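Supplementary Note 3. Input sequence used for the single-chain structure prediction.
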Amino acid sequence: GEVIGKSSYGTLYKASLQRSGKIRVLRFLRPVCTVRSDSKEFNGVIEMLGFVRHENLVPLLGFYAGNRGEKLMVHPFFGSGNLSDFIRSGDDESIKWSNILSITIGISKALDHLQTGMQKPIVHGNLKSKNVLLLKPSFEPRISDFGLHLLLNLTAGQEILDVSAAEGYKAPELIKMKEVSKESDVYSLGVIMLELVSGKEPINENPTGDDEFYLPDFMRNAVLDHRLSDLYRPEILRSDRNLSEECVLKYFQLAMSCCSPSPSLRPNMKQVLRKLEDIRKC
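The predicted structure, written as discrete structure tokens, is reproduced below.
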């Protein structure tokens, strides 16, 4: 197969299955990075992830564990790019309010399903715009990589968190606690919403001060300094004649509440979905 992605814990391949000719994504997990597959717990995790089916999630179609500790996960292949590239493409579609809202609602529905639609809640643990695939022509989002941290050992799991921090998606409380949670997933969603509405990167490469390195901090300062032009892309308002600035600012406020430094102050996914439906009507 063709290598389409690499990380410290494994490699992604695009491959064509011999019998059916279908194109699949094969995720090879390095033996040194995973938990032992002969444990009851491991089989339970694979079964749980294999049961997950939702229109906004990339399903796990198959799994193979070899006798040398190697593990292979099989997923469908979607060749239409990810949300991070879409936001920064300069494409007219990326500033359309209807697209921004429907993508956010799709991601939120997927997270809500993981948190409340299963027998046991599943924490995504590595949500970022690069892990949201977009299906054309409707730009329907599909989240990948959910629950992957459950298959990795502590060292590899910590590496995922370190990468997440370096890319600007890690909730502040994870510096003290190592366990990802529903609340840390909500924080990552908030960062993605800020990306969608502002077009900015989650990490500010040229911060004016220490407190402007991460996007939520940059936005907090922009609010305090009344820099409205930094909060959202003005082209969004031009994309829809019926759209009011108040509506875009409500979306921005929701994103900022998801990024609250205190996990207990963040809304849960049901509350996020209710707010998004209200924003859709305004």
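The longest strand covers residues 10-16. The CA atoms of residues 223 and 231 lie 8 Å apart.
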